[in-house]
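Table S2 (continued). Query chain:
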Amino acid sequence: MDIDAWVWWLIGAVGLGIPLVLTAMPEFGMFSVGAVAGAVTAALGFGIVTQVLVFVVVSVALIAVVRPIAARHRDGKPELATGVDALKGRQAVVLERVDGNGGRIKLAGEVWSARTLDTGQTFEPGEQVDVVEIDGATAVVM
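Corresponding output:
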């Protein structure tokens, strides 16, 4: 029994899909898609040289185009900050004196514990402060 070339390409595509699932390396998926393209080329009756060229071109093109896009999305920061990240950089009003040991501010409509970034600095009630970071349940201000 002689198996057609396109079947071998599909077996190769599945074989390349297995490490994709096990290792979560997207490059294997791109090679798998290249193998499917090789299977289509074989099913259309093209020779082995054309099949291999299609496999290589599709695989390399996917790696060259998709991989940088995926890396940008993976490394990019979310456009909309949420949670405590959304509070960084906002202004607040001092309710109780804030120094290096503590105090209270009104931030985003809520009362927060606060302390100064510079322990020698002090803010009095009514003053505007900038939130530098959130440390647990305490806003660090300056």
